[in-house]
UniProtKB/TrEMBL annotation:
GO biological process entries: defense response to bacterium; killing of cells of another organism
EC number of the protein: 3.2.1.17
Signal peptide (UniProt feature, chain positions): 1-21
Cysteine pairs bridged by disulfides in the record: C36-C120, C41-C47, C90-C96
Principal EC category: hydrolase
Native species: Zootermopsis nevadensis (Dampwood termite)
Record's protein name: lysozyme
Lineage, opening ranks: Eukaryota, Metazoa, Ecdysozoa, Arthropoda, Hexapoda
An example Gene Ontology molecular-function term: lysozyme activity
Coiled-coil features, chain-numbered ranges: none
Source taxon at top rank: Eukaryota
Keywords: Antimicrobial, Bacteriolytic enzyme, Disulfide bond, Glycosidase, Hydrolase, Signal
Pfam family, one: Destabilase
Length: 159
């Protein structure tokens, strides 16, 4: 399989995995958000689902402990928020990592780029810059360029 094919499979897997996790009662489901998170994952770590940590950023979404706390400290099944290592165990496990991102994006959802909508581009900015400084320009960052290319292909796939 070529790289694009492999990426597509990863994106779809992530979408399915996280959609599965989303089907909790009362939660709004959105395939668009899941695909968006696939592009964020791709831009963050090449969506490396086995990535551990670098300089305090862990898992495929490179989530810091503060980000995890602000996301409400989700945990893997059977774990507890206050147990030592709960943060690392969550953010290095794909389902829990995606749940962390989803909660963080929901908490800080805002129109960072000023285009009048809260959309995937805003989510990519919020994930990288944090919820309090997402209006900072990111156009020159490698992260944003990879995200942009992925987002463009997603838009072509979904119309
Ligand atoms: C994913 O990350 C691990 C740990 O850093 C690394 O050993 C592995 O080569 C990476 N995989 C890919 C596909 O980049």
């Amino acid at each position: 399989m070529d790289q694009t094919g492999a990426r597509y499979v990863l994106l779809v897997l992530l979408a399915v995995a996280t959609t599965w996790g989303l089907l909790a009662p009362g939660r709004q489901n959105s395939l668009g958000l899941e695909l968006c998170m696939g592009c964020i994952c791709e831009a963050t770590s090449n969506c490396n689902l086995t990535f551990h940590c670098t300089r305090g950023f862990c898992g495929p979404f490179l989530i810091s402990q503060l980000y995890w706390k602000e996301a409400g400290r989700p945990v893997i099944p059977g774990d507890h928020q206050n147990k030592k290592g709960a943060y690392i165990r969550c953010v290095t496990e794909p389902y829990c990592a995606a749940a962390t991102v989803r909660h963080y994006l929901a908490r800080y959802a805002q129109d960072c780029n000023g285009n009048g909508n809260i959309d995937c581009d805003d989510f990519a900015r919020i994930h990288y810059m944090g919820g309090r400084q997402c209006t900072i320009s990111m156009e020159n960052l490698g992260y944003y360029q990879v995200f942009g290319a992925c987002h463009k292909s997603i838009r072509q796939l979904t119309g």
